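Human: I'm a chemist; would you kindly supply sequence and structure tokens for a protein?

Assistant:
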Amino acid sequence: MFLSVKEEKIIINLPKNIQQEYSVNIDKYSKKTIISYVETILNNAERFYNRQFIVREKSNHHILECLEKMLEDYFNNEDLTTKGLPTVQHIATQLNVSPKYLSQLLKTITGQSTQQFIHDKLIEKAKEKLSVTNLTVSEIAYELLWTFAKLFKIIQK
């Protein structure tokens, strides 16, 4: 998670407040106060995690650009039929982010999951081949057959 200096201070100070509350004389308000601090930590963690997708927009769009380039290169590779579709884990690793972060990033920017995004790019590639090459539908289907077959199996599940 990416935190600003201010956000980092907030997160660091809350456990200190819990420790301070725990180490002073315990009274009937101590338990409620500690629970309140824990809730505040959790609320801020969720808030800061979701905010990073908004405030890091430029960086996030760079990740999206890298992803699109990676998929374009991957789908242009002649070994696509033997390798199959790239996994979300593989893509996230290549982009140096976690699969969950990548999925939430794409959901925020495109409204799609990572898997949907990959499938759409594959379909775009098939459409492109239909419009800019002299390949027949059968030839394109043969070239992408294994990949499409796997895609349809995933969709049917």
Observations:
- The chain is about 80% helix and 0% strand.
- Residues 30-55 form the longest helix (26 residues).
- Residues 4 and 76 are 39 Å apart (CA to CA).
